[in-house]
What does this fold into?
Amino acid sequence: MNVFDITVKNNKGEEVALSSYRGKVLLIVNTATGCGFTPQYEGLEALYKKYKDQGLEILDFPCNQFFGQAPGSDEEIHQFCTLKYNTTFPRFQKIDVKGKDASPLFVYLSTAKNGKEKGKKPSWNFNKYLISKSGDFVKHFGSMTKPEELSADIEAELAK
It folds into this structure.
């Protein structure tokens, strides 16, 4: 199993097979609009602009499980991100990333292994997961890792 075996819903409620991203390097992020890490949207958008044409996709999954820091509807979250941070990468429906109702995507990301790296459950907002062009887990980055610190890892995956 890998990411491409999973289907999620976009922020309009439409089903999206993650296999539609086959051949792209993915950066999957659990986000929140009212968190101290919310300004990371700026860095994520900068990464997206820099690497999108080379095959990077950033997938934004809002989550309200960490002290209710992603309030509002999917549309309100989308408006906030596009108006305040000018984000252009795909945003998906608000989900749970831990617990009994965790999205199958985040269950996979929390338990994935690639030989030297192991996935981790998000302990807070803005955990980042790098996924290979073939849909396999590559690396986990915690909330404290700023998007601009990911360039070398992204470039390495894009070069494969």
Residues 43 and 147 are 5 Å apart (CA to CA).
